[in-house]
Amino acid sequence: MKCAPFLALSIFANPAFAQAPPCDGTYELFSGKITTDVMPGNTLPDADRIARAFNNREGLAGQVIRKPQSEGLHEVKVSQCGRQFVLSQNGQNMLFRQSATDETLYVAQDIGTQKAELTFRVYGHASMIGRMAGEVQGFSFDYPAAMEPRSLAMPDMEGCQGENLSDSDIDMAKSAAAQGLAMALADQGKTAAQGYTLSDYVMTSAKDSGRESSWLHLGETGRILPVKPHEDSLERICALGETGLLDPPRVRLNFKQREVDGEIYVFAQVIDIETGIVREQRETVAASTSATDRAEAMSAVMAQLDTPVGATSGGYSQ
């Protein structure tokens, strides 16, 4: 396997998972321009001129030194809860282990010399930038590399810390209005996106007059958006293949609730967030102030809306 390094690569958000492993999958490895410098104590005559000629690819150096190029497709397989991965090509394997001081940095364990080190740093679980640095005969060298994803898969993280909460959980510490809306989503057959619970989609407020509101935000395609999207997550990037672009909220699906003589009047409003215009409104009455009865009322009034309410999302465009 050719372990060569770099080509410019766009870098995005830092990994959110505690141990920042890369995704399993197929990556294309790119090598970059190797450079050298004279080390202190180098007594070779014309050492500076040799280094300059090497870096400028003068004469014979320009013909024999490898140019930045693709080194072909390589497979990455993560194990040990993200603490290591194996890079392989054509039956040849190289083990990388996670640095004890930097969880995004992985160090090759055997490159055939003690005078150099090959490392890759993981960005956003799906891209890696690396370098081989070391010394030879009085010269230091720096050989950069990059790996870009071509096909990704979720690594086996079973039994590791950082697992997601159950999609069906509803936060019972929230108000009855918020609980009711989360339960109404469940009644509508909605399930939370991976890594979220239904309560993560519900916003709420209350006023002294006894009026309460709970609401949802819908994205451009009508998908229900979480209150706060998670940062780049291992599951979202590796398993779902979602991009890193936030889906902007376009519509507020608002449920105004007011208690009158022991009953809860529920008003569902579809509000354009940009203009503040109420596109449509429906109303019904809940049998009591309980979250269960509120949920039944909100589910019923939601079904009457002309505005389509899509599935839940992780907050990112696909």
From TrEMBL:
Superkingdom, taxonomy of origin: Bacteria
Signal peptide: 1-18
Keywords: Signal
Protein's recorded name: DUF4412 domain-containing protein
Species for this entry: Maritalea myrionectae
Lineage per the UniProt record: Bacteria, Pseudomonadati, Pseudomonadota, Alphaproteobacteria, Hyphomicrobiales
